[in-house]
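Thanks for the sequence, V.! I ran Oligosaccharide flippase family protein right away. Repeating your input here for the record:
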Amino acid sequence: MRDLRGHQSAVTGTAVSMAAIALTAPLNYGFGLALAWLLPADEFGVVSVLLTVLLLATSILAAGFPWALARRVARDDDPASAAASFRAALLGNVGLGAVLAAGFAGVQLVTGAILPGAGPGLTLLVAVTIVLLALGQVLVGGLQGTRRFTAVSAVRIAEVVVKVAVGLGVVALVGAGVLGVGWALLIGAVAAAGTGWWMFRDRLPRLRGAVAGWREFAAAAPMAVATTGFGLIGTLDVLLLGVLGQGHGVTVAAVGSYQAAAILAKAPFLVGSALSDVVFPFVARARGAAEAHGWVVTGMRWVPLALVPMLLVLAVTPDSFIGRLFPAEYADAAGPTRVIALGAVGLIVGDMLLKALFARGLARAAAVRIPAAAVAEVATMAVLVPGHGATGAAAGFAVGAWVGVGVLGAVYLRQHPVGALPVRRALAWSASVGVLAGLLALAAASGRGPDLVVIAVALLVYVVLAVVLGAVPAQDVARVRGFLDGRRVQRV
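Predicted structure:
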């Protein structure tokens, strides 16, 4: 491992990550939408659980060892030490992936409780995919720590493009159903791991050599625990809806309908996660709590400015999208979409807080407290799902997400100097969002047809007000104007 230092700034990293999201988010959306149209509702329900299982596995395997590696590489100038850290992360994460794969396979083959109707073939595909995800995430961790954001984005793009192409091909052309989706996910994981290896090949150490000691694993353990707890917040609603609703009218098809709501309402989380990924190495390298907090604010300020308006659209006007994007049998997804959107704001903020605590070496404090959020989610679902079905699951998700913000925020505030909120900027944002909410309510009442036009006008008015009233920082406005001016000059 020769030079472990990258050369991309936070601004460049954000731009690259946003570009990758601009490509992959529509593909992921389209994949979910296409499967909803191509598969019967009950099979789409099984696919929903399958995707959620792999999402949870990715959440577990993406932190812990990979994040410990990224943090170590971002701080360490010694190539030999970084190489030993890479070997430790590789050994630990692939080992963890093998344990998760074996656990999943054992439970599924014996009880069949995780994926309804899945046989040994699909079970084996999922188990192998989990191990490949573990390998790929270590490579992403190394790229992340060296601030090679373009390479990180390339890995994610490769996984999504291959998954979507293969998945739609085997389902639409061959009629392979759920098993075909399993193959697509496996091949996508192969593509991600292969791309990660190719992008990191000039910095890969030899596999034989010194391995970082138990301290490296000890640093990864609380990260893994905290990330597992946080990953559960975003997945327990889908995983437990069918279990808790059994005997209360919740079918596999109802789980598929809930997944349709989640596809819409949780999508902005991808943007928030990309922002926190970009900021992470800069927080890790910060020379003190004040500097670290400055970097956190750099990413966090876009939650109210950009992501809350996106989620407000889904919370107020879900019928405008559910009715157009999904078959008629998913019409009842509009109600859960509203509640999930409210919880998604908390999930985005919680993700940023969690990664900031990781970067600052406070993973242990997060690991101790984050399980409270998962417990709150399960308790809420246990009470509400039998009587309210999918809406009860959505409420459980929202409760878990915001409890997570509470427990993580308490740790963060004790460790970082947080200044007063700029009153003028907060009032400007509140006024802009208030106008947006009013216009969105008008869109919801206008009926199908003019509703999309009103939504577009509402968002445009919000952007103009946010800029004119000063909700958007002046330096960001100047940066955008400079970029646009540069584009005009290039065209001339």
